[in-house]
């Protein structure tokens, strides 16, 4: 399977910068045969402009968040229905910044996954332990709880789902995880998914890693079979870093053909 590289631009760029970034990403992928699957997640105000820029290309468009209701008096919220309407294909759900800064519980995350699937958006479900949990040796336990809660009662369709393992201590710290540890957690995630859904559906789920990925460390993660791709934050808004990560992914895919 090809690798999947997702850029989470967070709240780091405005509309004009998002558009410039999207054009640069397009340019960087031109003519590449084995380029990875690419999804960019600009801030919501830039989604429409970026969609126009990436239309008719292989670049997927993702939102960074959604609300779990479809319509109603929810001032300031954006529904899955709206995201589908403007041409999003993906949506990040349960990012640790949303869990920690905006009080998103496992229950809310599950409702958001359901809302995404209702509107045929591919959810990019984020799970991961924090520093304290890691020190207590509870990483697997936390990831298992988050995953089981997020997918509880979810009926999957083959159109896909992405699980992003993003340990909180690795996000924005410059301290990317150790690939061997990440492979271990990804294997756990795969085992849990196998209990929750049919084998053919499990094979369509991509398990990606995120946390302080940059052009220097991306190869160590991408070369692992158990790591289907990367969810990149800071380095995804630096076009030289981002281009190198895409180049590395292309090389890995070529070498694994
Ligand atoms: P950084 O790559 O900046 O650590 O962020 C990772 C992340 O949170 C992606 O969703």
TrEMBL record:
Q: Which CDD domains match?
A: TIM
Could you say which residues bind substrate here?
8-10, 172, 212, 233-234
Q: Which reaction does it catalyse?
A: D-glyceraldehyde 3-phosphate = dihydroxyacetone phosphate
EC number of this enzyme: 5.3.1.1
Tell me the compartments it is located in.
Cytoplasm
**Known Gene3D superfamilies for this protein?**
Aldolase class I
Q: What is a single cellular component term in the Gene Ontology annotation? A: cytosol
Q: Which InterPro entries match?
A: Aldolase_TIM (IPR013785), TIM_sf (IPR035990), TrioseP_Isoase_bac/euk (IPR022896), Triosephosphate_isomerase (IPR000652), Triosephosphate_isomerase_AS (IPR020861)
Pathway, per Swiss-Prot/TrEMBL? Carbohydrate degradation; glycolysis; D-glyceraldehyde 3-phosphate from glycerone phosphate: step 1/1; Carbohydrate biosynthesis; gluconeogenesis
Record keywords, A-Z: Cytoplasm, Gluconeogenesis, Glycolysis, Isomerase
The secretion signal range is none
**Major place of residence:** cytoplasm
Q: What is known about its subunit structure?
A: Homodimer.
Q: What is this protein called?
A: Triosephosphate isomerase
The species is: Candidatus Uhrbacteria bacterium GW2011_GWF2_41_16
């Amino acid at each position: 399977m090809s690798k999947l590289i997702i850029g989470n631009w967070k709240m780091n760029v405005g509309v004009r910068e998002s558009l410039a970034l999207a054009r640069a990403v397009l340019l960087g992928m031109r003519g590449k045969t084995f380029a990875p699957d690419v999804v960019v997640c600009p801030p919501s105000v830039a989604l429409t402009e970026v969609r126009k820029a990436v239309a008719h290309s292989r670049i997927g468009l993702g939102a960074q968040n959604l609300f779990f209701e479809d319509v109603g008096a929810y001032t300031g919220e954006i529904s899955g229905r709206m995201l589908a309407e403007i041409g999003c294909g993906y949506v990040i759900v349960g990012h640790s910044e949303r869990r920690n800064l905006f009080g998103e519980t496992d229950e809310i995350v599950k409702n958001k996954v359901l809302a995404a699937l209702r509107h045929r958006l591919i959810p990019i479900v984020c799970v991961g332990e924090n520093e304290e949990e890691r020190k207590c040796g509870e990483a697997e336990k936390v990831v298992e709880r988050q995953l089981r809660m997020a997918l509880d009662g979810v009926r999957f369709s083959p159109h896909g789902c992405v699980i992003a393992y993003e340990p909180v201590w690795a996000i924005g710290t410059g301290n990317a995880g150790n690939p061997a540890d990440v492979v271990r957690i990804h294997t756990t995630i795969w085992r849990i998914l196998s209990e929750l859904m049919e084998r053919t559906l499990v094979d369509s789920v991509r398990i990606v890693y995120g946390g302080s990925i940059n052009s220097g460390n991306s190869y160590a993660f991408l070369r692992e079979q158990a790591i289907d791709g990367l969810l990149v934050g800071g380095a995804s808004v630096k076009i030289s870093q981002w281009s190198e990560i895409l180049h590395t992914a292309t090389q890995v895919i070529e070498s694994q053909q």
